[in-house]
Amino acid sequence: HLTLNKLQLHVQDLRQWEKENGFPRQIDELMQLPALYRLALNELQNKIDVIKTEWQIRDGFSPIEHIKSRIKEPKSILQKMERKGYELSSENMEQYIHDIAGMRIVCAFVKDIYRLVDHLCIREDIRVLEIKDYIAHPKPNGYQSLHLIVSIPLILLEGTRWVKAEIQLRTLAMDFWASMEHILYYKFDKKLPPHVAEELKEAARAADELDQKMLRLRTEILELSDGAGN
Ligand code: GTP
Ligand code: MG
Question: What interface predicted TM-score (ipTM) does this complex get?
Answer without folding.
Answer: 0.94
